[in-house]
Amino acid sequence: MRLLVLILMLLPLTAMTAPADPTLLTWPDLTKRPRPTADATIPYGTDPLQRGDLWLPKGVGHAPVVIMIHGGCWQTEIADRTLMDWIADDLRHDGIAVWNIDYRGVDRDGGGYPGTFADTGAAIDALPGIARTYDLDMRRVVAIGHSAGGHLALWAAGRKGIAASSPLHVAHPLRIGHVFSLGGLPDLEAVAASPDNGCGTDIVAKLIDPARAAPYADTSVPHLLPLGARQDLVNGREDRIIPYRLATDYVAKAKAAGDRVALHTVPATGHVELIAPETAAWAETKRLIRAALAMKSTGSAPTREQAK
To answer: What is the CATH number for 9?
Structure first.
């Protein structure tokens, strides 16, 4: 199964891979373009991976915030926060601040269970202090996750329901009222039972610690339903890494639990298009983000003086 992960996820990050369908983007189409630079890198812990990049719109006061979580099959070897740089920069130019976080993957010391989850939660809970320093609007905050990051973003919205006996329990986690999952894997049990998913099935065991009595209770999003947060899933119908049924099956469970959730299927879209700023998939996601943050679809963002 490790070979499957390398073929479908790691190798596409090299120039050796040619897409089966030339209309779809490959990873080099994204990663080989000029890379924008964040405004600040801020630690939330002592490990080198316990960092986040802050992207700030110029001349904007009290900007709304997107919490951004990268994917990569929960493995630092495959991806880190820099994979999200281009859409973070795009949001910055649209008047939206971005807190693009990193975390220790299952392939790093301290990662897996509980570290990968604890890192994600700690990075998110650091945002109020960052907001005070950089004049961000904590009344307008949404979370976005791509691929494995989609799972972590949804999990973060639901972690208030984690039992007090769990190592992942936090008394007062930051409330997330709206989550966007871009080609995500919210149901870890479904991932573990799906050999056709690009992350493989063995990776889940490294994430959840299967020796525990109830390893999915505090890690897999369906066990935390209802989240009490609005959820928008954006998926490509031609995504070869994340099977489409992982989205439709999760949406059915979330709706049955009483959550407000919608699935947005974008045609001619694979996995890379979801985080490439020039695509129809990202245009749809940004439209949804702006609506969630109650931003006007036309006109410029307020200046610092206008925001006072």
So the answer is: 3.40.50.1820
Give the helix ranges, DSSP H, for the chain: 2-5, 27-31, 85-93, 115-125, 127-134, 148-158, 188-192, 202-208, 245-256, 280-292, 304-307
Instruction: Identify whether the C-beta of residue 184 lies closer than 8 Å to the C-beta of residue 150.
Output: yes
Burial string for 285-296 (b: 16+ CB within 10 Å, else e) reads bbebbbebbebe
CB count in 10 Å sphere of residue 132:
10
Q: What is the pLDDT of residue 290?
A: 97
User: Is residue 223 a contact partner of residue 217, using CB atoms and an 8 Å limit?
Assistant: yes
Distance CA 206, CA 259 (A): 29
- Both tokens assigned to 106: 């299952």
Measured in whole angstroms, how far is the alpha carbon of residue 247 from the centre of its chain?
14
Domain, as residue range, for 277: 2-307
| Residue spans of alpha helices (H) in 27-114 | 27-31, 85-93
Q: What is the pTM of this model?
A: 0.89
The pair phi, psi for residue 97, each rounded to 5°, is -80, 150
Domain count of the fold of the chain: 1
**Cβ contact 273:281 at 8 Å:** yes
pLDDT band for 23, please (50, 70, 90 cuts): confident
Terminal CA-CA length for the chain: 55
- Rounded to an integer, what distance in angstroms lies between the CA atom of residue 109 and that of residue 58? 37
98 phi-psi bin (left φ>0, alpha ψ -120 to 50, beta other): beta
Mean pLDDT throughout 277-306? 73
